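Run log, item B.
One chain of 438 residues. Sequence copied directly from the ordering sheet:
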Amino acid sequence: MRDPRTADQQSTGVGAIQPWLAVSGNYDTYLDQPGGTLGSSRRSVSLGGGLSAVKSFQRTALIFSYAGSGTDYTSPWAGAQQGWMSSNVINLAVSSQVSRRLTLDFAETGGAANGGFGSAAAAFQSGGMGMLGSLGAVGGYMSGAGAGLGGMSGGLDVLQNGLVDSDYFNQMTYFSSTSANAGFLLSPRTMVNVGGSAAFIRRAGRSFSDINMVGANAMISTQLSQRLSTFFGYSFSRIDFVQSIGNTDIQGGFAGISYLFSQRDQFSLSVSDSYMNSTFLSTVALPPDIAAVLGVSTTSVVRNNSRSYPGGRLSYRHEFQRGGFGLLCDSMIAPGNDLILMARTQGCSVTLSRELTPRFSVSGVGGLRRLTGMTQSGGRYDVMDGGLIFSYRVLREVSLFAGADYFASQIHPSSNSLTGVEANGGLRWSPRNEGSLF
């Protein structure tokens, strides 16, 4: 967002574009093979590419990014779909300082992907869209935008808030998230923001987890000093499960602080309390005597469930001279995934990138997330993912990379679990210096 309080620090007339291309070979294998599967390993070849573009005018900034990949699976693996699979994601943001006191912002993220692709997603199980996929650390795509200041479900970032994160099945998922925001500067230190958002998810096969989602939020932030800011606000979301249980309304408040230790160290902490009201259909078993009279053994009823849930978010970011470190932990209410509807999601993710020499660099991503069902009694999905990837620049714009990733997931109340590793290696091209935009 363009903040009028820091307008003097914002550059004008700046534009840059940076493309990238990658090709890799991948090998996935189980460490424990579930019973009834067709195979314990598979091989694949992935092609990926994308670009990031930024253009800043005197009053308006434009940001655009695209990342796409295609993967050809050449051997059986646990009965998963074989052949060519592709994924594409587009981000667009526009921020304009209309006047000295008013800013307007618009953001759109959408695409089609095989499974989830957050920092704790099912890496090699979701079509190569995880940690070491061509959209992962290799493409610089894992940083994400976080889960929103308040850690509330109203934030619709698709990378880390659970909208399409940590999916279990390898199926095509179509998604879109749109948001708009207006900021009003009340005084040199205080700003009010109001906004709205809308999102949808459609999974292949008219899934019971398809959703429509709308939200609204309001926030007041105060810059107490050059380093310390405080904020508090209100958020509302409505989630409709279009093929299944009904709808859920979520509202709540949040408050927090943001502190700038230095130009390279940023810290943010917030707490929230969300009130959820769900209306959904449920099937219950009838007593034998009543079932005998009615001639049916079950009946459908409409249930209403209300409850309050505390939450929060912590983030820390440090920038090295050549690299960076990031930590994000959150607890919030989210739509769930392709296994669990309406979940209390809790997790942490860590990102690290470091250029050890002018030619040699290392990147790492690790994360764990727990989804606890709120409308499915006892339902829980735990997922952990982490790994490292190394890159060596052989030419000015071409690098060799290789890495490995470990993945583990468990589904409750069943005993289904899966652990495995992925290894890959290939070539990546990207200009060392950003190109200029007119």
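Observations after the first pass:
- The longest helix spans residues 288-294.
- The radius of gyration is 23 Å.
Flagged for discussion on Thursday.
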